[in-house]
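Form 7-S
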Amino acid sequence: MTEQDRPTSSISRRSLLGTSAAVAGLGLTGLGAGVAGAAPGAGAADTERAPAARGKTMIGVPFARHETVRVGIIGLGNRGGSMIAMFLATPGVRVTALCDTNPAALQKAAKAVRDAGQPEPAVYGKGERAYEQLCGRDDVDFVYIATPWEWHVPMSLAALYGGKHVGVECPMALTLDELWQLVDASERTRRHCIQLENCCYGRNELRLLRMVRAGVFGEVLHGAGAYIHDLRELLLSDTYYAAEWRRGWHTKLNADHYPTHGLGPVAGYFGIHRGDRLTRITSMATPAVGMAEYRQAHEEPGDSSWKEHYVKGDTTMSLLQTANGKVIRLQHNVSNPYPYSRLNQVAGTKGVFEDYPPRIYVEPKHSGHKWGSFDDFKSFDHWLWTDIGPGPGGHGGMDYLMIYRTMQTMRLGLPPEVDVYDSAAWSAPVPLSAESIRRKGAAVAIPDFTRGKWRDKSRPTLDSTKPA
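Output:
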């Protein structure tokens, strides 16, 4: 190991033990390994009961001010590799460490850092647990995790117990027990653990959030969010997902695999954890036929996919109810031909907005059952879009603005606008939809991750005021 590779501090024994236990519980064999172990369900029959708190709440806790935010990135594949440009373009951010088991990906990412004029980053890639060395460094303030889903929790725990704030890709965790582990670890370490949900930073989503908060739709009553994206070609690709890890979940878990793209923005419209909370979910799934039909039409005999039996229904639909009686519909489909959509709908006593394509109908501006143009409401655009702009892009700019705003809150010493409690609630439909489907659509309770603190309407929101 060279001096460049050597961590400048050691991760605590407690962190290593906790991380090892989490990995063992998931039955993992490696970053590129196929999914192993039992499919996650709700994790407990009593899904509503919250475990006793072992630390103080992280609601409203500000970051310490950072003149420069030093970032370590774990996972440099499709997602992580594309996000390096966002961090490098953000003011006051330095990428100090990188980790991946793919040497080519490591080299490419390190070159991007050098080409941006930053110092040579430390690199870690020797073994599936190399990330623990990155999490033990004392020149990393924020760890970004973009790895296969089963690694999100052990890596997040290693980072938290290593004294780092964490930003993790979706879903944050796959079981209720894992979600509570992250809430507990965040409270005990006094470090934030954030679901980096880029769709919350879309131009339409932020405009819509400001319109909802301004009362344009009256009292909002129901909404919808989704992840509808035809991924059949990519899921059955031999190279796109390392070791074809993502398709493996279609053989093990009948659930909404990816709820946060749709739920995160809608939760903002409904003020979830800011005067309301999610209380129950009921889910149903169609038969699982799309992947097998696509395989029949496109895969050669002898391909490894022919050994697989798909159990994940092509479409899952869920209804979530809030404590105040509002209703949210979630949908997930990656297995059928369908134009991309996140639905992104909100409806209230004065009108409705629906996306894909965007259209609006609100009184008294609209009448006669004719949709109006969403362009007429550009005055509600968020300052991130009018004053900062899309930067180097990333899904039209929302990737960059997500990183920009998260790093900005750290530099200014502000509380994050999305915290561990929001993040846990957005990922909870993964195990809870599985449990409801298993119970033939029965309602399943959604736990209160805030432990009673959801009524506080003064908490930070994504409808932020531009800093001076």
